[in-house]
Design brief:
The chain is of the alpha+beta class. It folds into 3 domains: 111 residues, Dipeptide-binding Protein, Domain 1 (Dipeptide-binding Protein, domain 1, Alpha-Beta Complex), CATH 3.90.76; 120 residues, Periplasmic binding protein-like II (D-Maltodextrin-Binding Protein, domain 2, 3-Layer(aba) Sandwich); 208 residues, Dipeptide-binding Protein, domain 3, CATH 3.10.105. It has 16 helices and 19 strands. Strands 1, 8, 9, 10, 11, 12, 13, 14, 15, 16 and 17 form an 11-stranded mixed beta sheet that branches. The longest helix is centred in the N-terminal third of the chain and has 17 residues.
């Protein structure tokens, strides 16, 4: 009897070993609030905002990235080690990882991906890294010029796209432009087709190292009109929708069969006074910037736009970030705003010109402009499609007022690097005392001392009223009845569905 039981057990185990994984099936459709841009298909061009990671989490993979329950989970690198002097980082890569074209990932691909990276913080990374060495096919070594406590934060998290890996041979064969037309990655889904302004289609890659996706096909449709996205969700033409605000969000919440999924992001949004370094601009006067801060009723905008789910803040840095310092909130005080404007020489207010905004947030800026007008600051809303907005932003072509924001991961230093430091991708200027503290903290190895420096730097930003922060965005999304797992909110602070291999349809 024992022998027969043992034989049966061995037979069952052998059958289980050869039984293939359940094949992915079905389809899910997202109605996306922006027009997708091919530049977001290539990790090398990641612009320091969260938007590209909507695509990168599907098509690509990184040495490490945020995953459910972990802010920096080992992925293509199964482990890493740091030398005692803080100069050397050794990454051990996962064996047998396949790109979508069948090539096996090696250390060559990791080095190549870093060398070709030209997105956010690329200058900082290249200035800090002395060399990238291939130790063997599954080991790559980064040697720094000097100890830098933020290397992993800038490289192995979505603060940048430098640690997201592409296949060297394929990119060299098709070129950068060809790669954006037909991207190949190591993520859970492979590229099928892209129709600009309409949709991106991707299909499950059953050789993905973590696990095979359960949904066969994902479709991302660009639907910039908010009411249309909600109508598609109601009709079943979309399964998941992004960015539904105000009365439409309340309608989504009340509709049977639909689920509202609010997520508090790493995404702060703020008014950016990009002309404050121009002595001829009204914004060069700190009192004018303070007046703008007092003019805005953030609580009212929060309730109207995001049903109260956003977190009001006086900082451009999320409160959950390492080294974040939270300033006192700016009270809504129109009388004080008018007094400050009068003291600055504008008793009757002034014309602030155009206020540029990613068109997904036009309604938020319209509300801010209305509050400005009450105290005498007039501005004209200028909506731009997202890719064009950020392209003009980083090329320093925007003027007057700019509605800024970022949902990228990182810490206080990564956010300051991009938007405050003089060499930042989206920085239009800086101040000597701010710059001095930024350089000082970057070289400080003692965490407590570094925290003190970064807190002092953030206090300076607040005291100078460099920005008018609005909130940590409560991003309101929704899904329909066919969705068992939307992926929304699985990764703390992440705006979009992810990881895609965890997304599931309801059982038939």
């Amino acid at each position: 009897m024992r022998r027969r039981s043992a034989t049966l057990l061995l037979l069952l185990l052998s059958l289980a070993a050869v039984t293939p994984a359940v094949a992915a099936e079905g389809q899910l459709t997202w109605a996306v609030h922006i027009s997708l841009a091919p530049t977001w298909f290539d990790p090398a061009e990641t612009p320091g905002i969260v938007t590209p990671f909507m695509i990168l989490y599907a098509l690509h993979d990184a040495v490490a990235k945020p995953m459910p329950g972990k802010a920096m989970a080992p992925c293509l690198a199964e482990s890493w080690a740091v030398s005692p002097d803080g100069l050397t980082y050794d990454f051990t890569l996962r064996s047998g990882v396949k790109f979508h074209n069948g090539e096996t990932m090696t250390a060559d691909d990791v080095k190549f991906s870093f060398d070709r990276y030209k997105g956010a913080a690329s200058k900082l990374l290249k200035d800090k890294v002395r060399t990238v060495q291939i130790v063997d096919p599954l080991r790559v070594r980064f040697v720094l010029k000097e100890p830098w406590p933020d290397f992993l934060t800038f490289y192995a998290s979505p603060a940048t796209g430098a640690g997201w890996i592409v296949p060297k041979k394929y990119v060299e064969k098709v070129g950068d432009d060809g790669y954006k037309k037909a991207p190949v990655g190591a993520g859970p889904y492979r590229f099928v087709s892209f129709t600009p302004g309409i949709e991106l289609v991707i299909e499950a890659f059953d050789q993905y190292w973590r696990k095979s996706p359960s949904v066969k096909r994902l479709i991302f449709k660009s639907v910039t009109e908010e009411s249309t996205r909600l109508a598609m969700l109601k009709r079943g033409e979309a399964d998941i929708v992004y960015s539904i605000r105000g009365a439409l969000a309340e309608e989504l919440r009340r509709t049977p069969g639909l689920t509202l999924k609010p997520t508090i992001l790493h995404g702060t949004q703020w008014v950016n006074f990009v002309d404050q370094w121009d002595p001829k601009s009204p914004w060069a006067d700190k009192r004018v910037r303070m007046a703008a801060n007092h003019a805005i009723d953030r609580k009212a905008i929060n309730q109207a736009e995001t049903l109260g789910f956003s977190r009001i803040t006086a900082s451009i840095i999320p409160h959950s970030f390492e080294f974040a310092w939270q300033p006192p909130l700016w009270p809504h005080d129109p009388a004080k705003a008018k007094k400050l404007l009068a003291e600055a020489g504008y008793p009757n207010g002034f014309n602030a010109g155009e206020y540029s905004v990613d068109n997904a947030y036009t309604s938020v800026v319209e509300a801010i402009v209305n509050y400005f007008s009450v105290v005498g600051i007039t501005a004209k809303v200028r909506p731009l499609e997202r890719a064009a907005f950020f392209s003009q932003f980083k090329d320093k072509k925007l003027r007057n007022l700019v509605q800024s924001g970022s949902g990228a991961a990182g810490n206080a230093a990564t956010r300051i690097e991009a938007f405050v430091a003089a060499d930042g991708l989206y920085s239009y200027g800086s101040y000597p005392d701010v710059e001095g503290l930024f350089r000082e903290q970057a070289a400080e190895l003692d965490p407590k001392r570094r925290e003190m420096i970064l807190h002092k730097l953030q206090q300076l930003m607040h005291d100078k009223a460099m920005f008018a922060p609005i909130w940590e965005l409560g991003f309101l999304n929704g899904h329909g009845p066919r969705v068992a797992e939307s992926g929304l909110g699985l990764i703390s602070g992440h705006a979009y569905s992810a990881p895609y291999e965890d997304v599931k349809l309801t059982a038939k």
